[in-house]
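TICKET: design request
STATUS: open
ATTACHED STRUCTURE:
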């Protein structure tokens, strides 16, 4: 009974993490008309880094020497993932952006497998991507730039996983995330300030920026750490595969973004591919944006 309670708590944590991160993304998109994707990225990273420093206190075990190289690359991937994702959802619906972004860790998992059965999941993923990519013959098709930015965010997510795994061997998960978020903030906060100027520091924007930082980064990262300590990695990966659907629902409920049946089907194919790849040996998935 005790084990079941622990597992149920872990499942609750991972589901809540996905809900909070997609709610944070929906809230962030509402800030775009005021401070743009660049300014919103700066607010998210700046506040998230500050909160994570207070929670995990990374100054107690700072990396040494060459260990900083992996931390810096990890942070750059994290920053690239954030800003490309925000630039993409400025142009395309949230659920579609998350589905396209998910192809990064999905490809990483499938490329590391030599099982023939995984070709089925590759086929599902490719079919989902092709259905989501813009139709050049339609004037109302998906924005190509937005779709490519979402795919770019996925590539950064794959790098984030690779270097996050390396840095995780050198420091605890919380310290790694705090330092990576700091590197991302150091690079991208100035970009947001230059892009948006004093609008970034208005009292109407700052509280929302803090809320985005907590919902999109600090809270879900902490919830996922609890989940990973109390459930098998494979089970965690299966639940994480539901994130594109949760993103689409958040976009519909909060942003009134309506998807076509074809787009829902494409998202479903990406989810099926992700669930299938979860059974690939040594599968590694970490949270996205």
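STATUS: resolved
RESOLUTION: sequence designed for all positions
ATTACHED SEQUENCE:
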């Amino acid at each position: 009974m005790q084990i079941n309670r622990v597992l149920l708590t872990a499942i609750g944590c991972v589901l809540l993490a996905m809900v909070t991160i997609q709610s944070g993304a929906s809230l962030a998109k509402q800030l775009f008309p005021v401070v743009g994707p660049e300014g919103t990225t700066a607010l998210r990273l700046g506040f998230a880094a500050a909160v994570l420093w207070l929670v995990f206190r990374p100054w107690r075990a700072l990396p040494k020497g060459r260990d900083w190289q992996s931390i810096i690359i990890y942070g750059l991937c994290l920053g690239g993932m954030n800003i490309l994702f925000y630039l993409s959802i400025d142009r395309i619906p949230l659920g579609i952006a998350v589905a396209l972004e998910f192809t990064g860790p999905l490809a990483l998992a499938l490329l590391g497998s030599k099982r023939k059965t995984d070709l089925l999941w590759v086929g599902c993923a490719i079919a989902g991507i092709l259905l989501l990519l813009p139709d050049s013959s339609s004037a109302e098709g998906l924005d190509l730039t937005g779709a490519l930015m979402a795919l770019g965010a996925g590539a950064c997510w794959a790098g984030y996983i690779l270097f996050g795994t390396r840095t995780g061997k050198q420091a605890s998960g919380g310290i790694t995330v705090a330092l990576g978020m700091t590197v991302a903030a150091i690079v991208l906060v100035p970009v947001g300030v230059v892009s948006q100027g004093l609008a970034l520091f208005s009292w109407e924007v700052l509280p929302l920026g803090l809320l985005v930082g907590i919902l999109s980064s600090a809270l879900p990262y902490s919830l996922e750490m609890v989940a990973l300590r109390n459930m098998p990695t494979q089970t965690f990966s299966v639940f994480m595969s539901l994130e594109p659907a949760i993103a689409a629902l958040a976009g519909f409920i909060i942003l009134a973004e309506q998807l076509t049946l074809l787009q829902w089907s494409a998202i479903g194919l990406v989810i099926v591919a992700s669930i299938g790849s979860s059974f690939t040996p040594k599968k590694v998935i970490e949270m996205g944006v």
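CLOSING REMARK: The chain has eleven helices and no strands. The chain has a mean pLDDT of 83.
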